[in-house]
Amino acid sequence: MKQEPTPRALPLMLIWSVMILISLFSFLIGILEPELIILLLTMGILLYLMAGIHVVSEYERAVIFRLGRCVGVKGSGVIMTLPIIDMVLKVYIGEDNADIKLEMWTKDKKIALFNLKVFFKVVDVEKAVLGSIDYREDIVKTIKELAEEILSDVSSQELRTHLETYLSQVKVKARNLLRRLGVEIIDIAGKVSISE
Fold first, then answer.
1. For 114-157, what is each residue's pLDDT tens digit?
2. In angstroms, rounded to a whole number, what is the distance separating the alpha carbons of residues 61 and 59?
3. Beta strand pairing status for 77-80 and 53-56?
4. How far is CA 38 from CA 12, 18, 111, in A?
5. Do the Cβ atoms of 116 and 189 come closer than 8 Å?
6. What is the dihedral of CA 182, 183, 186, 188, to 10 degrees?
7. How many whole angstroms separate alpha carbon 94 and alpha carbon 165?
8. CB atoms within 10 A of CB 41
9. For residues 1 and 136, is the Cβ–Cβ distance under 8 A?
10. Contacts of 40 (CB under 8 A, 6+ apart)
11. pLDDT in tens, 37-79
12. pLDDT at res. 106
């Protein structure tokens, strides 16, 4: 996921601003001919428009913010925005995963080390971006809390033999909780090692 604003417009805007200022200053003191001023202004406007071109790949969606307010989600392809005024956040909508390491005490007072892998997919891009500062972090936090809640009341022997059953319980609860973020939990896989 790319949840960073695209800062491509700033260098082009700086060039554009300098060209406009040179044109206006030169026109005021009569140095440049009007045709040259028109050429400089046209080049400045073209640079401004080029800074607003973004390419969104097939497995991404672009959430566009205009002056801090969400104005919509655009699909794959070439999109046009207004530089400086618009901010574009790209979100990966294919199947993604996150690794979770968890250490806890079992019911029979042994330390269990879990290596979990959560497979998820963003199904509602606008909810995922607007509903959370970082939806990946929220997924990891939710899975950790649910795993601690469910797995801490289990003995080490039950963990060794029925880990998949307990992870499916975590998956069901996580699906219900993370639906509000526009994220679908596909699967949770994991291994446990218990220190004696």
1. 899 999 999 999 998 888 888 889 999 999 999 888 888 888 88
2. 7
3. antiparallel
4. 18, 15, 74
5. yes
6. -150
7. 26
8. 16
9. yes
10. 19, 20, 22, 23, 32
11. 777 778 778 877 888 888 999 999 999 999 889 999 998 899 9
12. 84
State phi, psi for 53 to the nearest 5 degrees. Answer: -90, 125
Q: What is the pLDDT of residue 8?
A: 58
Looking up tokens 């655009």 gives 74
Structure tokens that stand for 1 in this block:
């996921």
Give the number of C-alpha atoms closer than 13 A to the C-alpha of residue 141, restricted to the C-beta side: 8
Q: Sketch the domain layout of the chain as residue ranges.
A: 9-92, 95-195
- What is the architecture, at CATH level 2, of domain 95-195? 2-Layer Sandwich (3.30)
pTM exceeding 0.85? no
Q: In this structure, how many other beta carbons lie within 10 angstroms of the beta carbon of residue 144?
A: 17
